[in-house]
Amino acid sequence: MSTDALPPTHKALVQEVYGEPLIVKTVPTPQPPPGAAIIKILYAPIISYMRDVYNGKRKYPYLTPLVIGTSAIGRVAATGSDAVLLKEGDLVYFDCTIRGRDDSGAIILMGLSQGFGEGSKKLMEGEWRDCTFAEFAKVPLENLLQLDESRLCGSPADGGLGYAPEQLTWILQAMVPYGGLRSIGLQAGETIIVAPATGAFGSAAVVVALGMGARVIAMGRNSEALEQLKTLSPRVETVQITGDVQSEVASLKKFGRIDAFLDISPTEAQNSTHFKSAVLSLRHEGRVSMMGGLLDDFPIPYRFVMRSNITLKGTWMYTRADCQAFLGLMTTGVIDVRKLVQVVEMFKLEEWEKAFDMAAEHGRLGQIVMFAP
Ligand SMILES: NC(=O)c1ccc[n+]([C@@H]2O[C@H](COP(=O)([O-])OP(=O)(O)OC[C@H]3O[C@@H](n4cnc5c(N)ncnc54)[C@H](OP(=O)(O)O)[C@@H]3O)[C@@H](O)[C@H]2O)c1
After folding, report:
1. Boundaries of each Alcohol dehydrogenase-like C-terminal domain copy (predicted)?
2. If you measure from the C-alpha of residue 157 to the centroid of ligand 1, how many angstroms do you get, rounded to a whole number?
3. Is the CB of 331 under 6 A from ligand 1?
4. Residue 260: exposed, middle, or buried by beta-carbon count in 10 A (0-12, 13-18, 19+)?
5. 157-204 per-position pLDDT tens digit
6. Domains of the chain with CATH codes
């Protein structure tokens, strides 16, 4: 589809007023300026807690009116004049993490969060406001990852991996913990605690850490979900979050030397014991990746952290280099989730309420709910 073949209008899921119900609207289809592409959205995954983002409960900062959304799988429909690699028809993964071109510290999650500064707010106010819960989206060229479609989706008889394109939306769940795991330099052969490990991002973290060659101790409250994680590999151990730091530390320490800990707590885990237990179980020079969504400040075992030379590293999302490296793990088959990733259901934009409810109930290992606009 060239620029003159783009439809003049398309459908999009819009929030007019912060926290208020969404509406499907017909909106103008933009033309691609230099530096951008227009993608046709094929599959846009719904994050398990999106209902609580757009009803205001999670207090995400964003401007309205807004075409909401997140990262997605699409096809390039048209490119700006400066595109040198991407071409019409390419299967792409769009990464919603947008950075200021003149200030890489100004970051927004397109359709979701305006970030934390004046620069990022300006980004969301302007060019990169409207996201992927729509038939088309205008996105920065550098946020598109060209997918090797014949390798990823081709038939195994022809050297392909045989993924259904919609399964590739799992990249959204996996890229986030990959960013945190890379940020603390997780090495093959190391042991890492992932907690809580039973949600969508948490369970993806277990899969990714295994793919990076680590042994994983998965911590969580739900014993059934922990058992499911154990089936992934003999390199998965599990520890129940009991609310008692001493017993949690004792259970963790049974597994010997622990090198690292990825925390991916949701807002609701503000008072959970797992953070303290996991930190106290680390070896000298252990590393902690803090990726959780806690809204309030949080006590740390300061003396232990100081005495044990522990590194605490916060990470929001990931870098572009992480994206390419992760795609390499998927394309080479080092991380193989063909049997694991299950599309629970696909929805039309008009079905957004049902879709958000379904996503909230299916945030477990390998599960994905999505829009196919
Ligand atoms: N830093 C980043 O770039 C980044 C990016 C994306 C997401 N995040 C954050 O990651 C968080 C986790 O995402 P998620 O997909 O795993 O899903 P989620 O739906 O936000 O959280 C569900 C997970 O949290 C556990 N949980 C809920 N309440 C808890 C409590 N009171 N104590 C202990 N555990 C509790 C659940 O355990 P049960 O199974 O026992 O219910 C489940 O494992 C998100 O909330 C978000 O804030 C961060």
Report:
1. 202-330
2. 39
3. no
4. buried
5. 999 999 999 999 999 999 999 999 999 999 999 999 999 999 999 999
6. 3-163+338-371 (3.90.180.10), 173-314 (3.40.50.720)
